[in-house]
TrEMBL record:
The lineage of its organism: Bacteria, Pseudomonadati, Bacteroidota, Sphingobacteriia, Sphingobacteriales. Keywords: Glycosidase, Hydrolase. It catalyses: The enzyme specifically hydrolyzes (1->4)-beta-D-galactosidic linkages in type I arabinogalactans. It is an enzyme of class 3 (hydrolase). The gene is galA. It comes from Pedobacter psychrotolerans. The keyword Nuclease does not apply. Transmembrane segments: none annotated. It comes from the Bacteria. InterPro entries: GH, Glyco_hydro_53. This is Arabinogalactan endo-beta-1,4-galactanase. Its EC number is 3.2.1.89. PANTHER family: ARABINOGALACTAN ENDO-BETA-1,4-GALACTANASE A.
Amino acid sequence: MNMFIKYIKGIKGFALLVIMILASVGCKKTIKGETQLYPEPDAVGTYAKGADVSWVTEMEAAGRKFFNSAGEQQDLFKILKDKGINTIRLRVWVNPASGYCNTADVLAKAKRAKAANMRVLIDFHYSDTWADPGQQNKPAAWANQDFTTLKASVRSHTVAVLTTLKAENIIPEWVQVGNETNDGMLWNDGKASVSMKNFAELIQAGYEGVKAVDPASKVVVHIANGYDNALFRWIFDGLKANGAKWDVVGMSLYPTAADWSSKNTQCLANMNDMVTRYGSEVMICEVGMPVTEAVACRDFIKDIMAKNKSLANNKGLGVFYWEPQSYNSWNGYKLGAFDDSGKPTVAMDAFLP
């Protein structure tokens, strides 16, 4: 009987030891001291569920407030995090007339993202205002520079902004070198249809600027119309042929309730091609749909996330909603994911676990 009791006690002791080891491996203390399961849900390397909220400081200054699904006023970053968002995307303009999206404004928003334990994607427009497929205007301060000086300006501006963030211990996980550069950037010098070589050299200048500040930050080249494989092959074949480097292919995708399924299917084919053709990782940097189509938008986002996650070798990195918090047609924009009372629509439920 004594031997049996010792045997039982030995089993219990061994089991207790195993439990203690598993607990020490499976849990960790956060900076604040709370115990949290490991890995953290928004740790580096996990899938990015993102939102571009670059308008937030301007909206707040205009008196706009944000509310959770229960109608309680809260900080936007908390509302988004409670909806599953773990990454914030922020655009950077060089010398914007309003001051919004300049370096200081970007830093203020990046600090809020860091405080919320969110990751950061920085989006350089290399302009004083919007850069997109229809306009890629040089900043006023760079307008008369020769091409050699223009490349130096791209590099130095990239370094300056990222160094400012790094001084506050904010290291963006991803950095876009240009925004929706379907026909290059910094027109006309960097217009791809005029000189793919020039465009490639500008991309390379940005790439080198990013890596000079932190080699771990991944460089994204971002093109609109993620369903258009011919466009993506033209851009990335051209960049590769002219010696430009990148880490991630970025896409925008703005379908409607009527065509999102077919657009997602085309986008998946394009994403797979980017992986096999260039070995690139792929991120959907912008999505959106009319706020009146919230149910369809939720289904669209869930589907495109599943398709992005399906890429071989975990090459699909994440999906970002563009300015979901814009409501009541803020600045005339009607593709947000908050209703007229300032609460998230069901579209944001797509990001929940």
